[in-house]
Amino acid sequence: MAVYKNETQTKQFPLVERNSNHYQEIASSALSNSINHLNNAYSQKLSGAEGAVEFRDEGVYTYDNKGRRYLDCLGGYGIFNVGHRHPRVIEAVKMQLDQVCLHSQELINPWSAHLASQLAAITPGDLQYSFFCNSGSEAVEGAIKLARLYTGKTEIISTKNAYHGVSMGALSATGRDVFRKPFAPLLNGFSHVEFGNIEAMEAAINENTAAVILEPIQGEGGINVPSEGYLRKVRQLTEKHGILLILDEVQTGMGRTGRMFACEHESVVPDILCLAKALGGGVMPIGCFMASAKIWKVLEPNPTIHNSTFGGNPLACSAASACIEVLLDEHLPARAALMGNYFMRKLNELKERYPERIFDVRGKGLLIGLEFTSKDLREAVQVELFHRGVIVASTLNSNCTFRIEPPLIITESQINFMIDALESVLIDIGSGRLAEMQALAEEQELIKQDVIAIEPVTVEEVLTVSIVPQATDSDSNLVSDMVIDEFSVAKARQRRRVRAAAKVGSSKVAASRKVGEVRLVPVRESRAKSNSKSNLETTKKKVAKPNKAGKKKAAGKKDKPKSKASYRAKTRN
Ligand SMILES: Cc1ncc(COP(=O)(O)O)c(C=O)c1O
Q: Is 155 touching ligand 1 by the criterion CB < 6 Å?
């Protein structure tokens, strides 16, 4: 630690010498620094809970500071198409570091010009010009602006559950309230129609429509593959009405789905194409939007009308050029198709064997969604896979689904490793635990739909807790410090065994030591009264009271055998 003085304060400055111990030192405080200076929620992140700090990566693997190896089936949300640290991309960037890193902004930038010419060569149709930026959101942002500028119209049609990024323009196109609502009002003129429904799209078009924006396959929406012909119909529709088609291939591009661009599966050429993520070869951040010379004309009178200081920087462009060369030389789009088919076949075999656990397998190439019968099951499988050395993650807009999006260089034996790990997890999650999760999912959905309700809890309704399996004397003292969440209380009322949702005490150490599987039972009145309101708080979020019909429905449900379809309907968000 060093001391840093500013005008008003003296603070500790966490100085770490750059020597051979540098990594160990920053790794030792990685979790606490993340919690204290990035976001407190890091304490709940799976890798945080496991103390897994990223150390190095290579090919299809990433390694933590304890030497544990993880098969990367997440691919950094789709950025590692050519694998981690592909030697040709690394070499290109290292060479570039010795020449020019960031550009002067005034002289002609040969690296961005070269990359633009490469992109013009590999993209379909008359896409010819590129604007470079630093992320997918920025690419979408620019595409929306270009569509408005070119057409002189303002309205954009997007789809429900779409994910186009989180900057204000991109967020306006994103189709999920959880991201949008907290930041309202967003841009005017955006509407969202059902993905895959061509009639709904046509109905949304009016004389002020500038463009339709679409992911060829919804990525964050849950890897939703539309029925064959949908994209072609959207293209025909936009042409018929004289509006632009913006394809967001930020996630589907660069070989991911088995073609260099997903639109090629249907021979569709968009008016504007957005790319990012894997474009940087898994080494540098870069995004871009592209269009034909005809559309680009509107940017000519004032080329800086839309601009970016870092966009098109030599380091990022060199990485992207090398990435494209690798994709072509190693035939990675074709490999994605081949390995994707193999992966999906293996996953479908598991689905056949475990229909109560796996609801759906879908995708194209190596963009695969694996949907479970409940959110809790998806979470449990994800955690267990992590313990077995496989990384996956859920999609942002569909919480029962996790994505399988590994580097396109993944081999058959690595896929087999993931499948074996997944099967062992599915076996380990026994039918008792499964039933519990499904009941929980069902109940959560009923609560969400206001079919059943949790009444606010008062101190008089305090519950005792016996910690299973080892309740000690000291545990009973902790009861007075318990914070029981409303869901646990509702469960306790039904005398059902629930996963601990109670935090014991305020200290994290106590919590992590004591929280486990608990059985909650109503306490005797006398016990309840001995606890004061101040040291036994309960969540008192208001939820709708049950109505008679609702109660009936909830009661009726318990007797009925559960169908997979009902799980899905209930647990999808
Ligand atoms: C289809 C799509 N568009 C845009 C974005 C936003 O990209 P970024 O996170 O680089 O801003 C994403 C990110 O997941 C995406 O999947």
A: no
- Residue 98 alpha carbon to ligand 1 centre in Å: 31
CA dist list (Å): 524 to 6, 454, 458, 498, 505: 58, 21, 14, 20, 22
CA atoms of 479 and 514, how far apart (whole Å): 11
Q: pLDDT tens across 17-42, in order?
A: 999 999 999 999 999 999 999 998 88
Token reading at 68: 């544990």
Quote the Cα angle for 122-123-128, to 5°.
Answer: 105
> What is d(CA 116, CA 506) in angstroms, rounded to the nearest whole number?
56
R_g of the chain computed on alpha carbons: 27
Beta strands in 152-258 (DSSP E): 155-159, 190-193, 209-214, 244-248
**HEC profile of 44-81:** HCHHHHCCCCEEEEEECEEEECCCCEEEECCHHHHCCC
Q: Are 146 and 158 in contact (CB under 8 A)?
A: no
Closest residue by Cα to residue 371 from 354, 389, 383: 354
Instruction: Report how far residue 216's alpha carbon sits from residue 220's, in angstroms, rounded to the nearest whole number.
Output: 12
- The span from the first CA to the last CA of the chain, in angstroms, equals 47
Q: 219: Cβ below 6 Å to ligand 1?
A: yes
The total of other beta-carbon atoms located within 10 Å of residue 429's CB is: 17
Pocket test for ligand 1, best of 74, 81, 137 (most atoms within 8 A of CB): 137
Output the pTM of the full model. 0.80
Instruction: Indicate if ligand 1 lies below 6 Å from the C-beta of 179.
Output: no
The rounded distance, in Å, linking the Cα atoms of 163 and 13 is 39
Taking only the tens place, the pLDDT of each residue in 164-200 is 999 999 999 999 999 999 999 999 999 999 999 999 9
Per-residue pLDDT, 2: 87
Q: What is the pLDDT of residues 244-267, one digit of tens each?
A: 999 999 999 999 999 999 999 999
Pairing of the two strands 390-391 and 69-72: parallel
What's the angle, vertex CA 260, arms to CA 257 and CA 266, rounded to 5?
Answer: 70
Q: What is the pLDDT of residues 50-76, one digit of tens each?
A: 889 999 999 999 999 999 999 999 999
Q: Which of 289, 271, 281, 274 is nearest to 132 (CA)?
A: 289
Write down the residue that tokens 């900057």 correspond to. 167
- Conformation bin of residue 40: beta by default, left when phi > 0, alpha when psi is -120 to 50: alpha
Domains and CATH numbers, the chain: 20-51 (no CATH), 54-82+331-451+547-573 (3.90.1150.10), 87-329 (3.40.640.10), 459-543 (no CATH)
Question: Counting atoms of ligand 1 from 1, which one is nearest the CA of 77?
Answer: 14
- With a 6 Å cutoff on the Cβ, whether 285 touches ligand 1 is no
| DSSP structure string for 20-34 | TTHHHHHHHTHHHHI
Q: Which of the pair, 458 or 442, is modelled with greater confidence? A: 442
